[in-house]
Amino acid sequence: MNHVLVRRRSAAVAAVLALTAGGIAATAGPANAANLLTNPGFESGSLAGWTCSSATVATTARTGGYALAGNATASDNARCSQTVSVLPNTTYAISAWVRGNPVYLGVTGGPSTWTGATAYTRLSLSFTTGANQTTAQLYLHGWYGTGTYYADDVSFDGPGGGDPGEPGAPAAPARPAVGAVTNTSVALSWPAVTGATGYRVYDGSALAATVTGTSTTVSGLAACSSHTFTVTAYNTAGESPRSPEAAATTTGCVDTGLPKHALIGYLHASFANGSGYVRMADVPDAWDIVNLAFGEPTSVTSGDIRFSLCPQAECPNVESEADFTAAIRAKQAKGKKVLLSIGGQNGQVQLTTTAARDKFVSSVSAIIDRYGLDGLDIDFEGHSLYLNPGDTDFRNPTTPVIVNLISALKTLKARYGSKFVLTMAPETFFVQVGYQFYGGAGGGDNRTGSYLPVIHAMRDALTVLHVQDYNSGPVMGLDNQYHNMGGADFHIAMTDMVKAGFTVANTGHRFPGLREDQIAFGLPAAVSAGNGHTPPAAVHQALNCLARNQNCGGYTLRGGPSPAIRGLMTWSINWDRYYGWEFQNSHEPFLNALP
């Protein structure tokens, strides 16, 4: 990490080693157990049935003649996987005998465990499928640059997906199709299910309609509100599992005045950070949102946020408060938005009490009012957010630091109204890593995925989510492959996760994707600004893929193209100025040319 960053921007919360350090104890196998894997002991003398990278079979076996040998290189963790058919709401027992340092065993989107051993050692865990889950993927892998690991006698025990369910109950319907959408209603339809006498439509966990036909219009919804619909079929024998989810957002969203594609940047207003101080009046008009970095608390748990301009001793060219405020007004007169950003590396904020929550609201409001700001950016890093053990439903969080932050943001939104701009800048560790590991579920770092309940609770008030696609370790995408920062592929895969949504680890819950106009991605303005700087041509490749579904490099967009993708965020405007405005000059015209 460049030394000038240490003060304000957290380094990678990278090592996934830390995420999986707490293994999950084995449980007894379910009734009617059977090993569902093909070639579980590699006794075919090949990798038949498995999908692997940097792997082969070897004679270094625990039993029989062969075992898996994965060669983990500096750029490949030698992942091997196999997908099996499973039943919904069913517990499976998973195990493997492994040797190497380290070796991981897990289920994609579910639990995992690991060990480091010189002799064959048994890894085991249990896994319960979700309400609509019909397949599961077991995986094994080593770690980057650690050499060869071995695995043998792998087992995925439980009833296969072809086993009969409840006799007489209908099958789950297919995913409902979204039809006409208005400010207050969403039309849905789905194919008929054999043996069904009726259907129930759910909005999240709430029953929204019961019908005998294969379509309905759910009404009475709020304008610009997000919904996740599922359908079940029923008859006298019972109700089916739920269909796959269909996401929809009602119309009537308030225009905050942002351009369709925006350039978003952080301004070091309270410190210099080696790149030099930039006066507000000198920020070019190319920047549509300027985030003032940073508002910080008087102590970690006080909730009392303070903001002041950079001291003159550190920033000799700092302007007066009057000039700073006048420059903000001038930006706003041109349609630009200026926000207070809270957090950064040093600004740890833990709202552990309702008193801290209330102080957060009053102190943040005082700063917004003092400068006449347009809204708030949440840039909580480090240990600001975490999940207590057992807090596994991101839709209904129970951890105080999460619950109190959500309450504070809702209060601020209600106070300032529909034009209030709310943005968030989490690291991948707190969002996309939630696909594999969720802090409240145990078995690893309790911070993984901890932004998800905040994003979900505020999704109807959220203007832009711009995840930091930098200072990150490898992250698994929806293609179940690890992606590395610094190229188009990382931005494509990480942004697609936010658009498409994803199953949250082993919790059985699915995080619904955001509207495309709520999504941007963040990257360093220059090589000194953070790890993961991406050349402009690669950024443009990512945007072309995400907006136009072109030049995706072999990646398939699970969330489809997003022609209304909001744009790009960077750390920072100061670093961009220091490097001759490469970020601004390369990307602002490109954004303007997008559809």
Automatic annotation (TrEMBL):
<keyword id="KW-0119">Carbohydrate metabolism</keyword>
<feature type="signal peptide">
    <location>
        <begin position="1"/>
        <end position="33"/>
    </location>
</feature>
<dbReference type="InterPro" id="IPR050542">
    <property type="entry name" value="Glycosyl_Hydrlase18_Chitinase"/>
</dbReference>
<keyword id="KW-0624">Polysaccharide degradation</keyword>
<comment type="similarity">
    <text>Belongs to the glycosyl hydrolase 18 family. Chitinase class II subfamily.</text>
</comment>
<feature type="domain" description="GH18">
    <location>
        <begin position="261"/>
        <end position="595"/>
    </location>
</feature>
<dbReference type="Pfam" id="PF00704">
    <property type="entry name" value="Glyco_hydro_18"/>
</dbReference>
<dbReference type="InterPro" id="IPR001223">
    <property type="entry name" value="Glyco_hydro18_cat"/>
</dbReference>
<dbReference type="InterPro" id="IPR003305">
    <property type="entry name" value="CenC_carb-bd"/>
</dbReference>
<dbReference type="InterPro" id="IPR036116">
    <property type="entry name" value="FN3_sf"/>
</dbReference>
<feature type="compositionally biased region" description="Low complexity">
    <location>
        <begin position="166"/>
        <end position="176"/>
    </location>
</feature>
<dbReference type="InterPro" id="IPR001579">
    <property type="entry name" value="Glyco_hydro_18_chit_AS"/>
</dbReference>
<feature type="region of interest" description="Disordered">
    <location>
        <begin position="156"/>
        <end position="176"/>
    </location>
</feature>
<dbReference type="InterPro" id="IPR013783">
    <property type="entry name" value="Ig-like_fold"/>
</dbReference>
<dbReference type="Pfam" id="PF02018">
    <property type="entry name" value="CBM_4_9"/>
</dbReference>
<keyword id="KW-0326">Glycosidase</keyword>
<dbReference type="InterPro" id="IPR003961">
    <property type="entry name" value="FN3_dom"/>
</dbReference>
<dbReference type="InterPro" id="IPR011583">
    <property type="entry name" value="Chitinase_II/V-like_cat"/>
</dbReference>
<feature type="domain" description="Fibronectin type-III">
    <location>
        <begin position="172"/>
        <end position="253"/>
    </location>
</feature>
<keyword id="KW-0378">Hydrolase</keyword>
<dbReference type="InterPro" id="IPR017853">
    <property type="entry name" value="GH"/>
</dbReference>
<protein>
    <recommendedName>
        <fullName>chitinase</fullName>
        <ecNumber>3.2.1.14</ecNumber>
    </recommendedName>
</protein>
<dbReference type="InterPro" id="IPR008979">
    <property type="entry name" value="Galactose-bd-like_sf"/>
</dbReference>
<keyword id="KW-0732">Signal</keyword>
<dbReference type="Pfam" id="PF00041">
    <property type="entry name" value="fn3"/>
</dbReference>
